[in-house]
Amino acid sequence: MNEAVTIRSVFFGTPAFAVPALQALHRVTQVVGVVSQPDRRAGRGMQLTAPAVKQAALALGLPVIQPEKVRNGELERWLREREADVALVAAYGRILPDGVLNAPRRGCLNLHASILPEYRGAAPIQWALLDGKTETGISLMQMDSGMDTGAVFATRRMAVPPRMNGGELSEALAQLAAEMVGAEFLAAVSGSLQAVPQDSARATAAPPLTREQLWLDWTRGAPELINQVRAFAPAPGAVTRIGQKRLKVLDAQLGWCEQGHPPGTLLAGASGTLEVACGSGTLELLRAQLEGGRPQGAAELQRGRVLQPGQRLAVTLQEA
Fold first, then answer.
1. Strands 135-142 and 152-159
2. At 79, is the pLDDT very low, low, confident or very high (cuts 50, 70, 90)?
3. Backbone conformation region of residue 274, classed left if phi is above 0, alpha if psi is from -120 to 50, else beta
């Protein structure tokens, strides 16, 4: 057993994004507990479903706690009983009070999915795509009482390809976060890596997203709408409406049709492609899902008479 394995750690995380980091932490430390959010109902059958981190923790034989509340003192007491040297947090989904942050001897470190101080908040991956960023990354920071305001130990960067969507970017960043656990995280805990305060004057926010932000407003420019499609694919999906049914747009790229058509109008593109007129430019539909149906390519949607040139999509949320 090497020295790193003697570190007693606790992991906080909930979604699939955090699973690679938990697995990496388990390889290099003694994980004495995992904290995840409670099971929630999900899927068409609304079955009670355990978070991805809980499932991964149980597969590793680790004890899991799922507190409904984090501010009543019970979580803090549980952490102190674990006698942890440090806690690592990755997409847990709740703001931790000072008592919890200070319970491990070395405090709590966080793997945040942005190049801090950019995109402090709950949805850094989606906001980076909405803004058309060509680079993002993972920051390892010391947690304090602010919203992602703690000093940063290290940042790993990655390029964002033009066609990468939210799900793909989340998977790539999850692997990048896992790589940091075996290197920068251990260095930070040992004291060989020093944290640098953030420049708050350069900070940008990544607040929680609303359901209204999923709706495609066809009066906007095509590049902005494509970023919106990318940000929310494959789930929950950017949304429009055709007739009385919702249509999730899952993949799109810039179109080539001539402008001058009313926004939201479906246009016949070259070689049987299907485009949508926007406030400026056109968007080529590559993949979409009609309410109650399955994801389909544009050609299949046309063959099934779901979408046809000349039809008009709901232009704005108000119209929908």
1. antiparallel
2. very high
3. beta
Phi, psi of 315 (to 5 degrees): -75, -40
Output the pLDDT for position 259.
83
CA distance 280 to 64: 51
Give 320's pLDDT tier (boundaries 50, 70, 90).
Answer: low
Please tell me whether the peptide bond between 20 and the residue prior to it is cis, using omega within 30 degrees of 0.
no
Q: How far is CA 192 from the centre of its chain?
A: 30
Burial degree of 315 (CB within 10 A; 0-12, 13-18, 19+):
buried
**Cα–Cα distance measured from residue 103 to residue 67, given in angstroms and rounded to the nearest whole number:** 16
Q: In what helix (H) or strand (E) does residue 201 lie, and over which residues does it extend?
A: none
| For residues 90-117, average pLDDT | 97
What is 211-303's CATH topology?
Methionyl-tRNA Fmet Formyltransferase; Chain A, domain 2 (3.10.25)
- Which residues face 111 on adjacent strands? 140
Q: What is the mean pLDDT of residues 195-218?
A: 96
Closest CA to 24 of 182, 185, 187, 184: 182
Q: DSSP character for 160? A: -
Kindly tell me the sign of the dihedral angle through the C-alpha atoms of 295, 225, 155, 6.
negative
Residue 299, helix vs strand vs coil: helix
What's the CATH superfamily of 3-202?
A: Formyl transferase, N-terminal domain (3.40.50.170)
Domains 3-202 and 211-303 share a fold: no
pLDDT for the residue 5: 53
**Calpha distance 251→237 (Å, rounded):** 9
> Among 6, 60, 46, 56, which Cα is nearest to 28's?
6
d(CA 301, CA 218): 20
CA distance 273 to 220: 21
Can you give the pLDDT at residue 2?
Answer: 46
240 CB-contact burial (10 Å; exposed 0-12 / middle 13-18 / buried 19+): buried
